[in-house]
Amino acid sequence: MSVVIPTYNEARVIYQRLDNIAEQDYPRDRLEMIVVDGGSTDGTTDLVKKWIGEHGDVKVKVIEEGGRFGKAHALNTALRYAVGDVVVIADADSMWTRDSLRNAVRWLMIDGVGAVSCNKLPKDDVAIEGEYRSYYGALRIAESRKYSSPIFHGELAAYRKDLLLKIGGFPERIGADDSHTASLIALMGYRAIIPEDVRCIESVPRRGYWSWRLRRAQHLVQHFVSIAGLIIGNTRIPRDYMPVLLTETYLHIVNPWLLLIGLALILPAVLHGMLIPTALLVLGAILLITSKFFRTWVTTQAILVAAAIRNLWNKELVWRKEEKD
Ligand code: GDD
Ligand code: MN
C-alpha cells in the first residue's frame, strides 16, 4: 500500500500527520509513505526528513517537485513511484481515526469495489460547516449503499492502483481530483464508496472560510459539468449509479439557479402587493432566521451559483493555502 501525502507549505501539521499515519492500526511493513512536495517555502520537507531520521522502521519516499504545479500534478508524480497495489491519498491538513486505514482497505478488498473514501468530521464548527457536513455526509453514505458516492474526499481517498492507471491518473484540468477519479472508476463499473466506519477529521479555516468554500464549490461544479458531458450519450452507466449521478449533477449545476430565478419571479409580484408571493417571501425570511438547516441549504446554493460564475475566469486549479487552527 502506498500512502501519498501531497504537501504545499504544511510545516504546521506535517510532523503530526506522519505520526498519525504511522500510528494507524495497520502493519507498517506493508505500507510505504510518499510525500510529494510542490515547492514549499516554509520548511515542510526539512521536517519530513527530520521525521524520517527519527523513524527508521517506516518506509518514506520524498519527492520534491521543485515548484508548485498543483495537487493533481503532484499526485500523478507520486503515482509513478508508488509500488503498492492500493494508493491512498492523505491530505496533510487532516487526521485519520486510528482504524480508518484498516477499515478502508477491508472495504476495498471486497469484490467490485474500486475506491473508498472517508466521512469528514469538521474539527471546529465554523459558520455553517457542522450543519453542512451532517447532512451532506449522510447523503454520501446513502449513495454509497445504493452504488457509489460521486463525491470523494482527498483527506482519505483509497484507490485500486490498476483502476487509477486505467483512467489515466488524476485529472489536472478539474479541481476535484478526488471526486472525479472516483466517478470515472464508478462509471467503469467498480463501486466508489464512503462507508460509515472510515473517518477523517478536517481542520476548518476560521479566516477565509467563505473563499475556501467557494473554491471547493468551484471544483465540484467543474467535476459535475464534466460528468454531465459523460452522462449524455453514455448507454453503459451502471444502473444503480444513474439516479445518483443525475440527482447530484442536477443539485450542483441546475438547482442553485432555481433559487435566483424564483426570487426574480417573486419580487415583482411582491412589489405589486400580491398575497401568495408575499407570504412565500415572508415564510422564507422566517425560515432563514429560525432554521440553521434552511440557512445552510440556501447559503450552499448561493455559493454554488457564485462558483459557477467564478469558474468562467478562474478555475482555481492551484489555490491559496488557508491558515487553520
Ligand atoms: N505537491 C503539492 N502541490 N501539494 C499541494 C498543492 C500543490 O500545488 N496544492 C495543495 N497541495 C496539498 C496540500 O498541502 C494538502 O495536503 C492537499 O494538497 C489539499 O490541499 P488543501 O489546500 O488542504 O485543499 P482543500 O482541503 O481545501 O481541498 C479539498 O478539495 C480539493 C479539491 O477540490 C480537499 O478535499 C482536497 O483533497 C481536494 O483535492
Ligand atoms: Mn485541506
Any idea what the CATH architecture of the domain at 2-207 is? Alpha-Beta Complex
Regarding quaternary structure, what we see is single chain
Each distinct ligand: guanosine-5'-diphosphate-alpha-D-mannose, manganese (II) ion
Largest sheet: 7 strands, mixed
Number of helices: 12
Fraction of helical residues: 40-55%
Mean pLDDT: 96
Could you spell the SSE succession in H and E letters? EHEHEHEEHEEHEHHEEHHHHH
CATH superfamily of the domain at 2-207: Spore Coat Polysaccharide Biosynthesis Protein SpsA, Chain A
Which residues form runs of ≥5 with pLDDT under 50?
A: none
Provide a concise account of the structure shown.
With 325 residues, this protein is α/β, with parallel strands linked by helices. It has twelve helices and ten strands. The protein has a seven-stranded mixed β-sheet with strand order 3-2-1-4-8-6-9, sandwiched between helices. Strands 5-10-7 form a three-stranded mixed β-sheet.
Task: Walk me through the structure.
The structure is a single chain. With 325 residues, the chain is an alpha/beta fold. The chain has a domain of 206 residues: Spore Coat Polysaccharide Biosynthesis Protein SpsA, Chain A, CATH 3.90.550.10. 50% of the residues lie in helices and 14% in strands. The chain has 12 helices and 10 strands. The strands form 2 sheets. Strands 3-2-1-4-8-6-9 form a 7-stranded mixed β-sheet, sandwiched between helices. A 3-stranded mixed β-sheet has the order 5-10-7. Strand 1, helix 1 and strand 2 form a beta-alpha-beta unit. The radius of gyration is 21 Å and the shape is globular. The relative contact order is 0.12. The mean pLDDT is 96. Bound molecules: guanosine-5'-diphosphate-alpha-D-mannose and manganese (II) ion. Guanosine-5'-diphosphate-alpha-D-mannose binds next to strand 1, strand 2, helix 3, helix 7 and helix 8. The site of manganese (II) ion has 2 residues, from loops.
